[in-house]
Predict the structure.
Amino acid sequence: MRLKMPSVVGQIFAGVLIGRSVLGWVSTTDTPVLADLGELGAAFLLFSVGLETPFAKIGKVGREAFVVAVLGVIVPFIIGFGWAHFSGLPNAQAVFVAAAFIATSAGITAKILQELGVIDKKYSQVILGAAVIDDVLAMLVLSVVSSVSTGQAVNFASIGLVAVQSLGFIFIMATLGRRLAKHNSRILDKPLSPLSPWSLSIALCIGVAVLANQLGLAAIIGAFLVGMVLAETDYRDWIHEKVIDLNEFIVPFFFVTAGMSVDIAAFNSVGAIGSLVFISVLAIVGKFVGAWLGAKDDRVLVGIGMVPRGEVGIIIAGLGFQFRVIGKDIYSLLVGMSLVTSIVAAPILKVLVKRTGKEQGSDLSQANSES
């Protein structure tokens, strides 16, 4: 953070340092509880993102944000799958690579825009609105990819079944889940104890995450949807405040264990480093082009704002590694790509925001002088 970078970067590098690749102090194999804490960290991270993403908000972001999000998923998915396929990877691995390419870290982008003081600008609303939709689309794609990752060939009938199952799960959470949450929110106006809403929210987060896993979906999808449901209750701000405190402890376990799984030896050659640079460029170009095509105004700024993959890309890569679909080499490349896109986007976004502000200021001055 002192270097003006997201704290997640430092947490991952800490994991790389204490892991087997460098100091060899600890590993998830010898200390399995770390892996469990990491999974809980990922669930609560997505739960907190969901608390900032109520279902009602998705309906208000506008057509432009929706188009930016959709094209920002389609273009990088095609590019990511194309690179993986022509690199000789099996289809099961190729779709996981493509899924990591489509992610967007709404948290990192929002933090950058907030620090720059432009969170209320139109382009910021488009970026954040698109990132919200992008998260939902990424979760849907991830659920499909996770469920068909057991075979080397992609079965389109299975994809269709999982897509319907995923949409059905989301629909139930968006309708019945919201009604139950709002009803229970009124009941909790007179809670059994001051912490009853908090206890129930934690139980729901873990319970629905387990349910999603039992249905063949990623557990983090269930946690994400619970957050979206609770975001529309009267206890949203109170729960979110307490989740922030919890996440300060639990979420770093996910990023540290992610770093511990990175194999530094995978980048011990010029070719490996070249591969990292190449897929990072592809990931940046894919997301930028998709968002640029969908935006109407400030297209370059919107395109760069959608570039950071951050924690979402790492989560997808981590699930691929956990399911043993991808090996340490591809996992390390995807984590490295997520880091590179997050680091590169921040300074470029700052320059573009300042330039846009100066241009808008000069245009305003010129208009005043002409009047």
Notes: The chain has a mean pLDDT of 77.
